[in-house]
Amino acid sequence: MDASTLLLFAFVALVAIATPGPTVLLALANGSRYGVRRSLPGMLGAVLSDFILVGAVALGLGALLAASEFWFSVLKWVGAVYLAWLGIRLLRSQGGLDLPAQGQVSAEHGSRAIFMKSFLVAVTNPKGYLFCSALLPQFIDPAAAQVPQYLAIALVFTGMDFSIMLAYAFVGARAMRLLKASAVRWVDRLCGGVLLGLAGSLAFYRRSAS
């Protein structure tokens, strides 16, 4: 894989990542509720899922999901239900400015919970596996060693994903500082509504549409 191929992949990845998806919306909501620093575990959870996704594609999991209706449906419904649950929670949120002090943070708002929410949202989304299994091989030189190429793609993909999520978290945190609690509630409701819509689209998503 040469530099021009990697640059082309970076551009395609930027377009795909910048389009608001579940993990980007969670970064926005987390930024508005907790601030940028406490949102970082969620971004790291999404980055870990990116590495798993690229590794799974390299091992052929994307092809398995494309071929198996059963496993595709299992992953699809797990992802849809979890997205819907998160969307409902955000719709019912009263905003993040009344969170307890740093030393009194509950398990629900702790770093581990924030990490797991983003990780599970990303790792249970079959669209990601199908999309990457169709896209990534186009940038891989079959005559060269596969592992270094997939590693380079994973580093570019995760780096861009983290940067986009960080930007959205800054936007959310800015809304929290400037517009106060009412803005945080509306950011939560906006993200919750979109997550519910994404859950619905995932529930009706079929492999033939990939």
Brief summary of the model shown:
With 210 residues, this protein is an all-alpha fold. The protein has helices at 3-18, 22-34, 36-59, 61-67, 69-91, 111-123, 126-135, 146-203.
Per DSSP, the total helix count is 8
Radius of gyration: 18 Å
Low-pLDDT runs: 96-105
Order of helices and strands: HHHHHHHH
**How would you sum up the major sheet?**
none
- How many runs of DSSP E, i.e. beta strands? 0
| Structure class | mainly alpha
End-to-end distance? 26 Å
Average pLDDT, all residues: 78
Beta-strand proportion: under 5%
Q: Tell me, briefly, the overall form.
A: globular
Kindly give the count of domains. 1
Helix % is: over 70%
Name a few traits of the molecule.
0% strand; 78% helix; single chain; 210 residues; globular; mainly alpha; 8 helices
Structure description:
With 210 residues, the chain is mainly alpha-helical. It has one domain (3-11, 22-209). The protein is 78% helix and 0% strand. The chain is built from eight helices and no strands. The protein has helices spanning 3-18, 22-34, 36-59, 61-67, 69-91, 111-123, 126-135, 146-203. Helix 5 (69-91) crosses helix 8. It starts with a helix and ends in a 7-residue tail after the last helix. The model is unreliable at 96-105 (pLDDT under 50).
Give the SSE map:
Layout: H1 3-18, H2 22-34, H3 36-59, H4 61-67, H5 69-91, H6 111-123, H7 126-135, H8 146-203
Helix pairs in contact: 1-8, 2-3, 2-6, 2-8, 3-6, 3-7, 3-8, 4-5, 4-7, 5-6, 5-8
